[in-house]
Amino acid sequence: MDGIHDLGGKQGYGPIEVNDDGDPFHEEWEGREWGIAQCARTPGITIDWWRHCRELIMPIDYLGRPYFDSWAQTDFSTYIEAGWMTLEEVAGGKGGTDDAAHGEPPAAMTLQQVLQEDHDHAHRFDGDIDAAPAFSVGQRVVTASHGHAGHTRLPQYARGRTGTVQAYNGAHVFPDLSAQGIEVHQHCYNVVFAASELWPEASGSKDKVCLDLWESYLSEA
Amino acid sequence: MDGIHDLGGKQGYGPIEVNDDGDPFHEEWEGREWGIAQCARTPGITIDWWRHCRELIMPIDYLGRPYFDSWAQTDFSTYIEAGWMTLEEVAGGKGGTDDAAHGEPPAAMTLQQVLQEDHDHAHRFDGDIDAAPAFSVGQRVVTASHGHAGHTRLPQYARGRTGTVQAYNGAHVFPDLSAQGIEVHQHCYNVVFAASELWPEASGSKDKVCLDLWESYLSEA
Amino acid sequence: MTDFDAGKIAEIHEHLHSHLPSESALRVKALETLLVDKGLVNPQTIDAWVEAYTEEIGPKRGARVVARAWSDPEYRKRLLEDAPAAIDELGYLGKATAHLKVVENTDTVHNLVVCTLCSCYPFSILGIAPAWYKAAAYRSRAVRDPRGVLAEFGVEIGDEVEVRVWDSTAELRYLVMPQRPAGTEGMSEDELAELVTRNSMIGTDRVLGRE
Amino acid sequence: MTDFDAGKIAEIHEHLHSHLPSESALRVKALETLLVDKGLVNPQTIDAWVEAYTEEIGPKRGARVVARAWSDPEYRKRLLEDAPAAIDELGYLGKATAHLKVVENTDTVHNLVVCTLCSCYPFSILGIAPAWYKAAAYRSRAVRDPRGVLAEFGVEIGDEVEVRVWDSTAELRYLVMPQRPAGTEGMSEDELAELVTRNSMIGTDRVLGRE
Questions:
Q1: What is the ipTM of this complex?
Q2: Does the first or last residue of chain A, that is N or C, have fewer Cβ atoms within 10 Å of its Cβ?
Q3: For chain B, which domains are there?
Q4: What is the pTM of this model?
């Protein structure tokens, strides 16, 4: 979707807050939200569906609320949509009277257990498919000029632009369909674009921008 | 600029508040701001510079504040930049001790006088230039694929798209330069685009989108 | 005098973001107070502008223009050829209508007006724009999903009708001339003007005269 | 189970906009309370995740990887060829690093990593991303004005250097390998690791070892 999340190249967001003390969490609730997101996932959820749910946050909230707050908002939305909780319960601040919904809590995990789970969560998204890659390294390609209303990973700034395939990444889960719960793999490439192809200010620059893009985003240039 | 103001085709802004009681102003301050904007303009200001100053409002404020509030914010910024008031005075809520800044107030205008001024303000932005128009009605044209960091009136959604000139509007003040205080006229055309050229959802549609575009935004298709 | 310094304006906006009162009413009050304090505006002139756009200038002007065009074929012709001159016959020329164009609905064409980049609007003939016209939802969707937008306004557009969206990117302004409803042959211009809604002149209303 | 219904999610967001507490801390508290109340999470497991990403997993891991690559040419080679396997030699494989690529700075190339569409980041090797990495200013500007962004971080890039920006649009993650500073020939791996800043592994720092 052409949503507020598609920020690459947008202007007017001001200077960067470069100072950072290096602490992972600056307020306690940020850590709580990080932890919640690690251990409370609805069945059948995909990373792309979760990202799309975050993209669907109202623009004013997307821009106006702290980062981990937008994770909480996304979690709320996925939990409610999946039937884990209701809008009424959220507004009321506690679970309803439906005792059936109250299960035994999962066992507590120790630090060592979550470290092991973190390690085991090193999930790769590539897999084998029958079709041969349509493009080869060094080939010129042009990106699609249109997106679509759903989740997609071709940013607006890189649409209808010509670049060069500089690496083949393997066949990766296609996010546009994964966000609909459909897992299919599609060849994915790293494509390098001259900055001057993307930005009016970059005329004469030798800088580059590199994106990982799926085959259906690309055509022969 | 590729700012938050360039809203055409962006998604996620939700349903339209279609109910409206028809009142011009719903709160008193809205009327006050309307009136201020009609009668307090800094010398040398152009409509395009004022629009650009509005585009430069922080995105969170642009989206989060009521419409006429963004006018007030724009006025504040133009008044401060032009030296009519200072940030300190604005923060303090009253004029400073600089007596020289306190002039005689302009004479009060009556209702009849402002109605007459409204009528006299029917300003046309077209004028004569030597160059002949480069394009003619019926011709296919393609729009520029890049904008620039300043004020421009070629929206993102209509960049790099092919349409047909359906009317010649005359040579109009060119907004991209007018926003820098430079008044030059440039031929301006109404260009009609098939909706299917602009939007992925419009495949097969016969709907159209018409924009008034300046000659330097266009090339022969 | 302005220096047309965009960087400075951006800095001012950031500064004002944290230093202005949080309520719109207080911000505008502060603005008026400073301008009056400095002798830059006369508050009675602000009163007069509010009165002008509350009592005198509004969509009734547009409705009158449409009703006359429905009643008088010669006026209709002049209006379609040179709208500013035609509306000035009624004394309605003014802000943002010096380069007005009237676009006509037919059985097979429906027109819809938007300004995606700001909120351009033909003030002197329609008055202050409705809130929805200035809001992000309408501005973003009117060009991309006009039929969906129209459906939210309760307007169904048949497949035989082409929707033509006018995005006000220059200093031209657009007024939609709705179709004269059937069964109004005997009506006076005054009666006809009563049928013309503001929304129909923007394009978010189509079939007039129904209850 | 989810129905992958985007329209429903949008409605939920609008509803939550007006029905949740206005403070972030209260919203997250409400979320945890409901999840615990329903027996869906164990709060001690949340504690453990917080501890893991506060005490154990962070940019020191990335710094160790870089220092080893500087010290051991064979490790460097393995890292550039198959980063997940190389970082797993140190036990650092984990969230968002299963398909890690290491991109190397040289005298003529500077690499900068961003995620314009969300905030993808190689958690298991760099920990929680800094606030600026997740903010709109960095996400919008890094791809369009990388030299301006770097200047704000105090990093000047000469004309002879090509800036290569990596926008993390897929499930690959990028780690920048900064250049080993001159005059560090005698340093141990531990000493070298001290020189490697988090920012240098994202690309917003370049010349290391200066005070």
A1: 0.96
A2: C
A3: 28-120 (no CATH), 126-220 (2.30.30.50)
A4: 0.96
